[in-house]
Structures are given as C-alpha cells and as structure tokens.
Sequence to fold (168 residues):
Amino acid sequence: MTVHESSMQISQDMVVSIHYTLTNNAGETIDSSVGRGEPLAYLHGHGNIVPGLENALTGKAIGDKLDVAVKPEEGYGEHYAELVQQVPREAFEGVEHLETGMQFQADTGAGPRLFTITAIEGDQVTVDGNHPLAGEVLNFAVEITAVRTASEEELAHGHVHGPEGHDH
Fold:
C-alpha cells in the first residue's frame, strides 16, 4: 500500500472496506463481518449501505474506528402499521406449507414489496411488508480497513467488483 492510498479519505465513488458489528438498542448482535474473514466492501455514495452509516463514514480514512447510531429515517425507515395485514390462507394458492418467517414478494399499488409471515392463526395469516429492522435504531461499530478509487467498470455498474472482476 502506498502512502497516498493509506491517507485517502472516504468520498463519493471510493471503494471502502469495513469490518462492522451491528447491534440493536438491547445490545444484541444483529449482523457482523467479524469472524467471516473478509470485510464488507461497498461503493461510497451509491446507496449500497444505509444512508446514516454512509454519511458517518464520509471523510474518514483507513484505520479509523467509530460507533454510529443510525436513526430509522436514515436506516431502514419507520415501521408502518398499515404494512401489517391479515390475509386468508387461501391467498397463498399453490403453497402447501406456511410457517412464520417465510418471505414472499407481492405486487402492490406501489410496486413489488417483500412481505414476511409473522403469525398464522387458523385460516388467517399475518404478513408484514416492513423491513425487519424498520423502526429500529441501528448501532454500528465500524473499523475502516481499506479505501481506494473505484474502477470505471465499478462506477458504471454501481457496485464493487472483486479482485477477479465481476460477471453479470
């Protein structure tokens, strides 16, 4: 690594690699890159990570460590009660076995949306169209491990490619 690369600050169109641990307000770990070997690499400024974390990382550099609390409006959004609905079991035509936690995509007036089955009571199935972390404060512990300029191909595609390139 050259001195130039190690002092690069995170800005638009940079490829950033981070190790992170995401916890909820109760301190429970929701997700982590620690122990998986490779850090998470993303293209800064292209919406590849939640806006609140991306904003907090702007201007930081390799080796920086920070704790970031991301409010719902800059994370996965607020939790909307109107996206929780009860539907009859027969709405799941062709699906023999339903269980909580199953996810499916449905067309809505606002376009396709991912729904999760949250309860089954008799012939009624409760589905939730909110992201599972909607309404939650996201607590990230982050360490920046690499920052580099994105390739033209990465910029054109809007995401990071691995060292061997990327097939679409």
The first helix runs from residue 3 to 6. The helical segments are 3-6, 51-57, 152-157. The beta strands are 14-23, 29-32, 40-43, 65-70, 84-88, 103-108, 111-121, 124-128, 138-149. Residues 3-76+134-157 form a domain with the Chitinase A; domain 3 fold (CATH 3.10.50.40).
